[in-house]
Protein 1
Amino acid sequence: MRILFYDTKKYDKESFDKVLPKYKDIEIEYADSDISVETARYAAGFDAICAFVSSDLSKPVLDILAKEGIKLILMRCAGFNNIDLKAAKKNGITILRVPGYSPEAVAEHAMALALASNRHIHKGYIKVRENNFSLVGLTGLNFHHKTAGIIGTGKIGAAMCRICRGFGMRVIAYDIYQNPDLDFVEYVELDELLKESDLISLHCPLTDESYHMINSKTIKKMKDKVVLVNTSRGALIDTEDLIKGIREHKFHSVGLDVYEEETENVFENREDDILQTSITSRLLSFPNVIVTSHQAFLTEEALEAISYTTMENAQSYIEGNVIEQNLIHE
């Protein structure tokens, strides 16, 4: 099997090259560019492609891939809301993903954002670099004995629950499906979680129901000086309403690893570009907001797990026995 990897970064190549020798029936070619209508034709002569969470796998792209003979798409990530599943099914393309590579990696980054934004680490670091040792504007909040509200208690949300418990926090959660392993967590309705939580962390998938679940109405239900963190999907939050809430001093701090309109920016160096959207600059204009670039997954352990599972998915397809739990259905 020959696989074309789109949007390959240095860390992708390093991690996949480590596990590739174990798979004698697989060859990999790496491409710097991400997949699009223009670059989908690069897949000619390959048996499969590998894409990532921000890749364009819309119907036009999938139609081109099908014409080039691609029958397998390997997603080196868990999310798949960027894929037109109906078009994939129509074209007879199998899609395999990595559903759980390192939930602790994402949860730890979520807590890092919560702590850094709460204690204004970004501001403190810059001030000291400028020989400014004043503590004015750096006052934070204790998390100990406060309430953490976790929205979504799958593997990542569960890991976040355990971290918050370790900080001595009361942990409440909202999820349609309760996780039986979290016996220390109190499940509540969303309105109660919004009302009671000092820290709110989002760990749910993006669906029609969860789109813009954080909006002007839900923000009004939150405590004043709440800390909000999102490491899941940007569109869970209505950015305009979030910015309004920040300006009205509703939030003590906000930590975002994802945000709306991030697609053009994710994993790219655009320091010499004039950005066509003001979302990033507007968010970064606030002293109590930290934005990172979709890096929550980025640990050595997570990259190793992603590489191994992706290659196992390819091998299972070759053998005609795909790993069912990793298969994406329409």
Protein 2
Amino acid sequence: MNLYDYNTVKRILSHHGFTFSKALGQNFLIDPDVCPQMAQSLNADDKTGVIEVGPGIGVLTKELCKTAGKVVALELDKRLFPILDETLAGFDNLEVVNADVMKVDLKSLIDEKFAGFNSIKVCANLPYYITSPVIMTLLESNLAIDEIVVMVQKEAGERLCAEVGTRLAGAVTVTVNYYADSEILFEVGKDSFMPSPKVDSVVIKLTLHKERKFEVRDEKRFFTTVKCAFSQRRKTALNSISNTMGVSKDKVSTAFDTLGLDTNIRAEKLKMEDFIKISELI
């Protein structure tokens, strides 16, 4: 069964009476080069467990099952289950779970489904509307995962993988850099999907730090400082932090002066160490 063939996919969907849901951001991959590259980038083996978010009709899932010891696919749309039963018949290392990645207890799921595995990775073609929330959940939940390989909207991928202190950086950039090393693996054109979205995509890889890379005394205050610094991007970081964090402008200004920072600097120009030191001083 060729799941990269447009007519084959159309026939399968029609047979099951399936129609695409805009609310769920459903765009199915039909490019024969993309999914094998995503699966291979994980460097998985029979001791690797993979969590897939949103398998769709199983195009990426099939490639993951060929390389990993076990794949657990989280699918929210129950209408896709009979389709997946057809397209992924024969794979005994696959389990499809009806779950919302933003609501399921991922730690318990990993403990239950991947006992005895040496490495746990996440791979997905993420709907654009939940890209950042899903990635943030995976990074911030202290899960036993090594890598995250996901396809995201090109603009989002560039921001996620940007260097802290550059024009593209945002609060999400700082968070990604805090927890992982990031890289853009390759671009994916909009014609690679059915139906075609309006924008191009990229596949990114996040390799989680095995040990803490940055020394932060109070993580909650650190991330609050970062979020507040970027919350009013047209303003200076000093004013944005003061306005949204409830800290007096004089106190923030004193912190900037102590660190030798220009009080007119914008958040995207601040380095990781700057955010850490600012959060500690205020």
Protein 3
Amino acid sequence: MNTDPIADYLTRVRNAIKANHRVVEIPASNLKKEITKVLFEKGYIANFKFEENGPQGTIKVALKYHPITKIPAIRSIARISKPGLRKYAGTANLPRVLNGLGIAILSTSKGVMTDKEARQQNIGGEVLCYVY
């Protein structure tokens, strides 16, 4: 049993990047699928695939690296809102990661989105993680 599946997801991605892996396999959930879609849309991962095997299914994430220097697209990925201490942000105080160079992934009433999209739609929510 895992008490924080989102932290497990982020840790698996972080560990795969440190080990220079091309693909990482993660147990699936609807929230993890949405986070994966946001990471793909913003160019932090190369590709992803949802596989329905077993009761839960898995997400296969293809990590993205620079073709010449082999530097990963994700420099840092950090969990912000934890089960013991939830972090919420209203429309007035949405976080800016690296002064707008990175993204904050939020879980809002209108789905999982970045801080920039939440600012445009004028909604707040739970700050799940920072990526840059």
